[in-house]
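Capsule polysaccharide biosynthesis protein: structure, please.
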Amino acid sequence: MDPQNYPLPSGVHAIPADFLDLRPDSEIDHDILHPKSISSSEKNIWFFWHAGFTHMHPYTQRNIRAWHRRFSKQGWTIRVIDRVPSSPLNVANFLDISDPGTFPRAFVDGTIGGDYAPQHTSDLVRWPLLLKYGGVYADVGMIQIGDLDRLWNETVGNRSSRFEVLSYNAGGVEERSLTNYFLCSERDNPLFERCHRLLLELWAADGGKESTEGMHSSPLLKGVPLMGGSFTIQDGEKTIGPEECSRMLTDYIIQGQVMTMAMGLVDEEGDWDGPKYVAEHVYGIEYMIGSQLVNEITAWDGQKAFDLMSLSLPKESEVESAEQKQAREIVERCLRESFGFKLAHGLILRVFGVTLGSLWRKHQGSDDVPGTYAHWFRHGTMYWCQDGEPSTQDYKVIEPIKRGPLLRDN
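Here you go.
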């Protein structure tokens, strides 16, 4: 099937060609590796990959190229920050890596350890980048679907708007659980400034930590529920039960715990009312439909998602099979209803075994085969745009988790 003839789902329209950067990949890659100098504009889209863009997996390189093709002509600059010593995109060229108010000692010394050191290194760069420069921080596994530029211009980037933070929220309106894989704000955001200070304090505990192990038990996070209460992990012949798995997952996503505490904190000494701030200034997109719809439809069965997305669309004379129908519904619903799609990796693989992202990584090029549902989905995320935009959850002021100073154990 000619990619230009993929069916256009209802609720979606084609983006005018002059809004897109349709040059060859080699020219797009040159721009990504040589981005514009930092300016006063806050239209920055930040990514981090410790070894740099050229050493990323091909499917995540395609993610980054799609961000550039979609948004660079609307004034956005896409940067993949790294820790490669000679790279012009080394984080040290953007932030003071010797400043203890910016990074913990383990980051400065390069001694971050544990099974997920690269992920925790990336956790430590996202708030400093947003606080200093503003814009969007997204994981490299984040595929953008909705019109980021339009939503930015109506919310965070609009001086008359009440919204100062844009993200996904894991849960209902009574929950305060922003996802760290997509964060958006202007410079010096007061919520993210407090989040960053709290995260640094956790890393500074016990004379300075080299991993996030055990951070879930910090008294500074008392009252924040642990994550993933029903998960188990099979570790060889041993089954790790829900309680230990929950502690492991919470340590892994400790940045999420930090945000929950900052949003649930009333600190009169620090002139901060987190519940009030959320109700007035956070644009929170419900995360399951907003960024995890493939996983919801397939019940987090990564192999099933991969198999469905790898199918070819029926040819003109063929009758659509039941599997093709389900794959079509995935693509059409995602393109119409989701603002993005986060490919899952990391610790979650120990829970589910495989995910769509891990299988795209394993089977190089499987996400980019013309005529397949995966390719139709990728085509839609680059050439098409939703007619509408996601709404924010309707937050109200709720009871705080903690009353007292941010960095003091009451």
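Notes: Residues 117-133 form the longest helix (17 residues).
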